[in-house]
Q: What sequence folds into this?
């Protein structure tokens, strides 16, 4: 009695039971070749489909060579480079803010002016203060 392969159901001759049978080219070869060819075509279709998906993703993501970062080895590396750059900017702004506050502290009271934004009429303050009234 013949056997069949588990994955592609290809015909296999059982030598003990089929050993004396006439060699049947259609059953023993051609049908198996057709199954292999069909499976190949199916896999080829999957590969073509996956290739199209990969190309769409590449279009959406873009080409790494177009990155304006120095690190183009990977998207993660480029993002990390940008993140580090932003951290440097945040630190610089923080340092500038601290320096401004320190300089403001050395000003005399008559050298400081208060600027107020409000939708109400001015109240309080000292000469030289600025009150900007806006409509809400």
A:
């Amino acid at each position: 009695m013949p056997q069949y392969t588990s994955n592609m159901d290809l015909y296999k001759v059982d030598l003990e039971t089929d050993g004396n049978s006439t060699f049947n080219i259609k059953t023993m070869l051609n049908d198996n070749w057709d199954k292999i060819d069909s499976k190949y075509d199916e896999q080829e279709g999957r590969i073509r489909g996956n290739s199209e998906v990969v190309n769409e993703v590449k279009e959406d993501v873009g080409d790494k060579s177009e990155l304006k970062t120095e690190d183009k080895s990977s998207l993660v590396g480029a993002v990390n480079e940008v993140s580090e750059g932003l951290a440097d900017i945040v630190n610089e702004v923080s340092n500038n803010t601290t320096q401004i506050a320190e300089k403001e502290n050395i000003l005399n009271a008559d050298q400081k002016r208060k600027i107020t934004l409000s939708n109400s009429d001015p109240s309080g303050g000292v000469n030289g203060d600025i009150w900007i009234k806006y409509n809400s």
Summary: The mean pLDDT is 87. The longest helix spans residues 25-61. Helices lie at 15-18, 25-61, 75-105. Residues 41 and 134 are 73 Å apart (CA to CA).
